[in-house]
Amino acid sequence: MSRRGRKASLPAGPHHRPVVLAEDGLRICHRDKRGVVRNYDFGVLPVAHALQRSLAATFAARCAPGGGWDSADTGFNIWVLVRAFAKFLSEQENPPGDIDEITAALWSSWRLSRPATNTGYRQVKTLSNFLLRNERLPQPVRDGMAKRLLKVKAQEKAYQPGEFTEIRVTARRMFRAALLRIRENTQHLEAWRNGAFEPGCRDWLVGEALDSLARTGHIPRYPQVSGKMVVVNRYRLALGGAKPEVTWQRLYLSRMECTSLAVLLVAEQGLNATTVAELPVPRATPDSGEGGGFPVYRLELEKRRRGGGQHFETRNLTDFGADSPGRLITEALEATAHARAFVAAVGSGPDRLLGWHERYASKGRVDPETPRVGPFAFGLARSAGTHWAIEVGLAGSPMRRTRKTVNVLHRREPGQNTQDTHDRVYVMNEPQVQEAAGPVIADGATAALEAARRTVFRARLSDGPEADERQTATAGCAEYDNSFFTPSGSGCGASFLLCTACPNARVHPGHHARLAYLHLALESLRTVLDPGRWDADWSDAHARLEDLKGRLGTVLWTVRLAEATAEDREVVDHLLNGHYDL
Fold it and tell me: Pick the residue with more confidence: 447 or 426?
C-alpha cells in the first residue's frame, strides 16, 4: 500500500459505497459521491499501533456516508496533515501511545511549529477540528484548541494594471496557439474522413494517424523490447517526428496549455482555482445559438469552502463576438472537444471542462491527484499554477492574485463570497483600493451628486406603450413638445442619447434589445477612441445604460441582447454615426 492516498476514477452509474474501514482497523477505502476512490493505510504512520487505530477510526467516520467528507480531495488533504502530525509526534522525547495520551503541551508545541502564515493557520484549525471528533481526546487538549488563534493578515495584493495585462496576454498567447493548432488538425481529420486525400500520400497518412489519435488518444505505436512504446515509422515520417508537438498535441491540450485556459477563466470571471478545476462542461441554454442567434452558456459554480453541496452559483455568458464574455467558453469547448469525445466513447469519466493529454500517463508521473481517463487528466492540479508561473517566468502562482485583481478592481463585486467577506477580506486591505479612495472622497458630495444626476437612468420604465406615446430611436416619448432640453413648444431636438436622461421618456420591453445593443456598441467605441474623447462624448450615456442594466438584471439584459435584430443593430449604427433623423 502506498504511503499517500491513491485516487482512481470509477465508472459512472449506480453503486453502493463499500465498507470504509477494513477488519484490521488500519486500512480505509474512501469513495466520494462522485465515485472517486482513495485508499489509505494508517499502518505506515510512525506512531504506536493503538494511536494508528484511533486516528484511522476517526478518519473512517468522516469518510463514511453522512460523515461530511463528500469529496475525496478533502480526505486526502486531512491525510497529509495527519501524516505530518504523526511524524511530529514520533520525533518527541516521549511520544504518546494513543490519542488519550496527547497532552496540551504537546499540542501547543505542534501549534508553534506551524509557519506564521495563512497556510499554518489553516493547518492548525483543520487538524484540531479533526482530532476533536474523537471522544477520547483529553479535555486539557480540547481547552488548548479552543484558545483563540489569530488569523494571519493576508499579504497578497492585486496585480498592477501592467502586470495583470502581461499575465492575460501570456496566457492568451499560449492557449490561442494551442487552439489554432487543434483547429487546423481537426479540419485535416474531417477532410480525411470525407475521403479528400489519395490513399498512401502524406496527407492521407497524417489523417489516418489523427483518426487513431482521436479514437485511442495515441498515434499508432508498437512496444520495443525495453517496453517503451514507439510511434510506427511511416506515421513518424509523415508527421515530422515523434515529439508531442507533432503527435498527440495535434488534437489535445498539454498540461501547460490547459493551465493557460484556467488562468484566462480566472482572469475573466474572478473564480477560485478549485471552482475552475471542477467546472462542469457548460451547456448552451435551449434555443440559444440557433437561427443566427448567440449561444448563451450556463456556468454552474460550487464554492466547496463554504460547505460542500450548500453554496452554488450560476452565471450566463453570451458569445456575441470577439471579446464577449462567452467567447472563451466557445474556444475552450473547441480545444477540449476531442478529449471529451474520448471520455464519452469510453462511457465513464468526470464532467469537467478542463482536460489535457498526459505525456507520462502510463507511468502515473503527472498529477496523481487529478481524475484520469486513459491518457487524459481532467480538472486542474494543485501545483499547476505554480508550474505555469515557472514556465512563463512569474514569481508564484497567479491564481489567487488574479482572482483578487478581477473581483476588487474590475468586477468590483463579490465572486462566490458574501458582500461582507468581499469588503473585509478583499477590498479593505488592498493598497490600490486605498490609494484610489482618497481622491474620490476629496472630490466632495457636490461633485458626486452632479455625476449621479448625469449618469442615472431617469426615463420611466413601463410594461408597454402608453396612449399617444411617440416612438424615438431608443424609447417612447410622452411629452415631445415639452422637452426638458429644448425650448417648450418647438419639439424636442435633443440627442437620442439624452432620452435615457429624460423623465418624459418611456422604456418598455420592446426597447430593451436595442438599448442593450447600444450599450454594447458604446463599450466597443471605448476600445478604439481616445479615452478623453470617449469620456466627453459617450461616458454619461453609457453610465445611464449601465444603470438600466442594473435595474433589469444581468440575466434579463443578456437575454435581451441576444434578441437584438438586424434592424436594431442597423439603427444603432446609424445613430452613432449621426445618420438618424429623430
Answer: 426
